[in-house]
Amino acid sequence: xxxxxxxxxxxxxxxxxxxxxxxxxxxxxxxxxxxxxxxxxxxxxxxxxxxxxxxxxxxxxxxxxxxxxxxxxxxxxxxxxxxxxxxxxxxxxxxxxxxxxxxxxxxxxxxxxxxxxxxxxxxxxxxxxxxxxxxxxxxxxxxxxxxxxxxxxxx
Length: 155
Known about the structure:
- The chain is of the alpha+beta class and about 160 residues long.
- It has a single domain (about 5-150), classed as Hypothetical upf0131 protein ytfp (Roll).
- It contains four helices and eleven strands; from the N terminus they run βαββββαββββααββ.
- It has helices spanning about 15-20, 55-65, 125-135, 135-140; strands at about 5, 30, 35, 40-45, 50-55, 70-75, 80-85, 105-115, 120-125, 145, 150.
- The strands form five sheets. A three-stranded antiparallel β-sheet has the order 3-6-8, with no helix packed on it.
- A hairpin with a 3-residue loop joins β10 and β11 (about 150).
- The model is unreliable at about 150-155 (pLDDT under 50).
């Protein structure tokens, strides 16, 4: 089975949301925190957001749709890989990034880059704020939700 390494920098950083989108428990995935240099993540106007199998990628491509372009990038893992079902989201702020010379080795991955720059706010998107205020909208089982239409207010 062919697999692809990916880097997520927005809503898909949340394990519950990632599992919902790929429509499986992610037990075949290993994840860790990583840094992508020379990129920033910004809020999208009026929105909450900013080793995969071919099936996972297909679902992610549908989810990200035409607003995003899948690109190969290089990231630096900041910790050891763990399997997704065993991953616990950090509860403390990460320490400062190491200097460029102290960064761990680079890994080529794919990520989704938002393409409509006119639709971005100047504000940088904050994952902690997203988790505190909006993540529940994306994975709450009481709400109607599919990979192609995103969260809704329920039926």
